[in-house]
Amino acid sequence: MTALHGFLPPLTPRGTSALVPNLPWYYSGTLLTVEYLTDPANVRAILPDDIELAPDRPGAVAIIWADWQSCSEGGLELLDPIRSQYLEAFVVVRCSYQGEVYSRCVAIWVTKDFAMGRGWFQGYPKKLGSVHVTRIFSRGKASPRLEAGARLGASLAAYDHRLASALVTLREPSEGNGFVNGHRMLHNRFMPSISQGQGLSMDQLIAMGGVDADLGQAWRGDAELSLADSPWDELHSILPVDEILGGYYREVGVTFAGGDLIADRSRTV
Amino acid sequence: MTALHGFLPPLTPRGTSALVPNLPWYYSGTLLTVEYLTDPANVRAILPDDIELAPDRPGAVAIIWADWQSCSEGGLELLDPIRSQYLEAFVVVRCSYQGEVYSRCVAIWVTKDFAMGRGWFQGYPKKLGSVHVTRIFSRGKASPRLEAGARLGASLAAYDHRLASALVTLREPSEGNGFVNGHRMLHNRFMPSISQGQGLSMDQLIAMGGVDADLGQAWRGDAELSLADSPWDELHSILPVDEILGGYYREVGVTFAGGDLIADRSRTV
Amino acid sequence: MTALHGFLPPLTPRGTSALVPNLPWYYSGTLLTVEYLTDPANVRAILPDDIELAPDRPGAVAIIWADWQSCSEGGLELLDPIRSQYLEAFVVVRCSYQGEVYSRCVAIWVTKDFAMGRGWFQGYPKKLGSVHVTRIFSRGKASPRLEAGARLGASLAAYDHRLASALVTLREPSEGNGFVNGHRMLHNRFMPSISQGQGLSMDQLIAMGGVDADLGQAWRGDAELSLADSPWDELHSILPVDEILGGYYREVGVTFAGGDLIADRSRTV
Amino acid sequence: MTALHGFLPPLTPRGTSALVPNLPWYYSGTLLTVEYLTDPANVRAILPDDIELAPDRPGAVAIIWADWQSCSEGGLELLDPIRSQYLEAFVVVRCSYQGEVYSRCVAIWVTKDFAMGRGWFQGYPKKLGSVHVTRIFSRGKASPRLEAGARLGASLAAYDHRLASALVTLREPSEGNGFVNGHRMLHNRFMPSISQGQGLSMDQLIAMGGVDADLGQAWRGDAELSLADSPWDELHSILPVDEILGGYYREVGVTFAGGDLIADRSRTV
């Protein structure tokens, strides 16, 4: 009898149809980051009860635009690039659990289904969105160069509502590209019972992060950021901007090879 | 301390951001169905080991194009229709488990993220696709009427590869709109462990189906169907067409209010 | 030698590739209309110098959401419905030229390239947009019915900026579905010289309208309308809402078979 | 009285809404090119009667994938990058007119409406398509590097039909990135009369090309190319591949500032 294969559904005899292929997953791309402060009470309100605020700068938030090319082992996706390229915009806060500081993604929008599927596995609360960020080319007059004064725009919309617009003006090379997204991620993975009102079948707390980081020169600069809500998305209302900390740009490569189960409250329902 | 709300991620204090709202979910739309026979060995190969072929016509397959408007309690989605409307194309076979015959969706493509999220909950192996089906208007020369001779086209593509094209010519009113998608659905819900190679954290077999069906007059007719594969999707190769059984069209309304857990092999990994 | 064929570019020996096929063009669909008053000075400002305000209610504006299926002779498009279906949202005012009252489209967004091409031919100033309008199905709980109290939403966005949102609540059957879009259209067709700063090569004033109207029962009701601008589109700023006149819904069919040249100032540049 | 402004429709008092802003237009991006030979009779058949085959290698064809960022004077588009970025795939042949050799675009698909509008002005026969090409990043494992052995994929689809797929394997730096798209473009600009059957109102032959070319290092290599037709697009059938000549990659910048009228047969119809 034929066995079924595939990392995520659908499963088939050959496994070709799976929404997401086996680990590891490889990423090459750019990150445009805006970091800001909100009232720490806003961060507290978006964290589960059993996860605490980070002890240092607990109101810090990062919103990051990533322009990715990604593939699995063998790189077949790179040859049909529609299956390889996507963008995402995501919102990260820091938190503390059992004495350790983590980063945590509290909102994320991506442009492709395979990225949504990876998010379900990794505990990223992914939705689809329309995500754009200025690119840096080396030729012609329709592009900033990677240099002081470069201006990079970014936008995020979902269901035809503009949720975020940003403008980063690069000023100088920097050591890193921000501190908010700098820890391992602490995420919840959950699935309600198929029976209405029976609670959660899967209810896990997991930790994860990339490996084999291949980092380009980071740049930092000034940033402007405008956030909004829609009937389907809260962004301004949950994490309003009190003070902009700065903006960053960096080309990066990274590999994702799995994470660790931290706590499991899954039930047979 | 604020509690977090939402049926599926992301969770927020008010729950507005959730990809999918609470049950029940309401659907109004049309179904264009093509039923055909494939070698029963093909159906056997796409079923998990512990699920058996249906005893009667085990090689029957339905591919269905649904053109939906949907909402949750209160109907807010209907007022911002981009959040309410979507299309899906899905492939259904029948199977048997512990003596009961079920329908089972083995492939499905949808056009919106909320529909993907509902599928993850219901065990539909959803991916994004581009789905189109001819509509029946009552005025003008750019539409068939709901009458004998009406010709309805349909298409499915994913990652810019055309996977299916269909043409149904209606012949006469009929009792129903096919038999393959006529049972409760038997689906697997699973999630791999976040730790590479550790197997499945969630591993459930569930049954579900719609309630409160509000059925329009069904029509049946002749059908043509062309299936293809792509590097990312198997359709022709897993369930090739041996013989077309017929085509159907029907306007329908239905409500989804949950299902039942049949078996659970979830593990703490 | 092979001749080249096609109504609009590209031309090929068989003409299959043409963006738009030969006239006539057939349309079946629905129209959701909101009519309102703006200061007549706003309408005056959006008209060319040689076109005057309509004598009666010169500040009347209609914004219309159309949900179309369309095809050319033979109806091949209907069998590959992605090539047949599109939506558009457009803004119409009235005007007067040489003593005759016309309607005139001053802004329009469509969802497909063939609709853009038809607009270039007809003098509609078409751009791409994301257009959605609530549909009326006959079954299930996720749809209004065509009856008093039905609520229909509509939205328009371009470049991820929401430009218009509307809500129409139907109250009663009515004679017609508004008066602003009720005359022949008076449009300009122009093309700048390929040489910079040389003015217009084509510069025509044309009149056109549909024929063979096949009209469903119109309904009228109350309406809400919210307009906005973006960096790329003016809508609120050019035709702001002073007073809502009403909302309408109607299923319609129509044929377009060409129009008439009214004036021609084209030059050889 | 307010004047109306805008390069292409719609015109408004401030001109902000125009589909395309004033010249000049700036471009920064990458070009992936595959050059091949078809039977010269195929090229002859796609040229108007009064344009002749190029004397040298008349059957040469280039298909080019361009990944662009573009803007007008002031660069406002770069700060809302959804308005600046687009891709296009286009097919170029060479031809001869009054003793001069030109390049000529015979088919082109773009991803944004402003690019369609520019094409109408320039005589490019633009349609919308879905266009993808592998990008070259400097970091991580999900990207080729600009070096021998790099493999770059590309795809083109329209109306959910895959029309072209290409794979270029870079071998070495080269002087240029092909010869087929190396001349000024000779294009027709035409518009049928609004009155059915009256011929063309605008009927121009124009020449144009970019200026201020800012060229990166070109690379050449091997190429594979697969072309197809759909009910709406001819590509394989009009210019089938007899022999692949090679593939190229180059980063480029260019400015478009207008062209020259070569012949004008416009009529007042």
From TrEMBL, chains A, B, C, D:
It comes from the Bacteria. InterPro entries: Acetoacetate_decarboxylase, ADC_dom_sf. GO terms for molecular function: lyase activity. It comes from Lacisediminihabitans profunda. This is Acetoacetate decarboxylase.
